[in-house]
Amino acid sequence: MIDWNRINTVLLDMDGTLLDLYFDNYFWQEYLPVQWGKHNGFDEVAAKEKLLPEFKSREGTLNWYCLDFWSSNLQLDVMELKAGVEHLIKLRPSALHLLEALVKMEKKPVMVTNAHPSLIDMKMQKTGIDVYFQQIINSHSIGAAKEELRFWSSLQNIIKFDPAHTLLIDDNLAVLRTARDCGIAHLYSIARPDSSQPEKDSEEFTAIEDFRDILPLMVDS
Description:
- By secondary structure, the protein is an alpha/beta fold.
- It has helices spanning 22-40, 44-58, 67-74, 78-84, 95-104, 117-127, 139-142, 149-159, 173-181; strands at 9-12, 110-113, 135-138, 166-169, 186-190, 206-208.
- Helix 6 links the parallel strand 2 (110-113) and strand 3 (135-138).
- Helix 1 packs across helix 2.
């Protein structure tokens, strides 16, 4: 249980935390390679062999999360392709419960995400959860991915939070470690970011299985 009396700022990731990571994993690992292969004369296996290592090499960088970068690099309209599978966008279990509880506790959160602004817009239109947030801050507007120290120092200038009294929930362990290096005291991971996959090893971080587990009884209803 989190001591909510010690929390003044709540920072929430989007993909894999509030939203099921299946949409993103399926898109990058399955759907996009197939579509790219069709345009370039590769079968599915060959397309994956060519693209997946390139995707892997960019992980943790701003370009990895930049749809404009990949549209240019792959000569495809990646955002248009995303729209083709947007029906797969969905909230993780009890995510809405968490957001509603935060409103009851008067702790309106800030979303901090690496997602491209156009993709944020799509996902907010699909889920409607933007109404719960005080601000939505993306790494592209800052110019650094959340895996970089510069993101957190810039964020602190934007929203003026006290790291000792800040909670961050994020499924990305590299992000959590960088946030820890910047002094954020309350850090939680997600046990199962992708509903199609088994629980992942959260290593040194406590992983949340159900958001209701971290809420006080007075709002857990």
